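**User:**
Everyone, produce one record:

**Assistant:**
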Amino acid sequence: MSVELSISKKNIDCIEVANFLTKCGVRNANIIGGTGIVNGLIEPSCTIRLGHDYSSSNKFLINQLWTNLKSKYNFECAYFSVPGIYGGCIKDWMRPSNCIGKI
């Protein structure tokens, strides 16, 4: 199952993001340029549809990718989507579980 990460920031360039992703080791992704509205401000956006290596069960790779993007572009958050399972802030998807173990 593929996952999507939507990022937006003033002057973001999706081609440059794609080049950065390849330097981070991403081998299969579709980067779609668009326009977003964040806190009432209109700004360019990129939706990154990741290949199957970045399935919803591989939080390590997703966290690694998010850490790289956050550092490079100074993002505070991004919209993360796993179709039929989750849609919201990537920070909420990545945070450790409060579960103490299997019941």
Residues 63 and 95 are 10 Å apart (CA to CA).
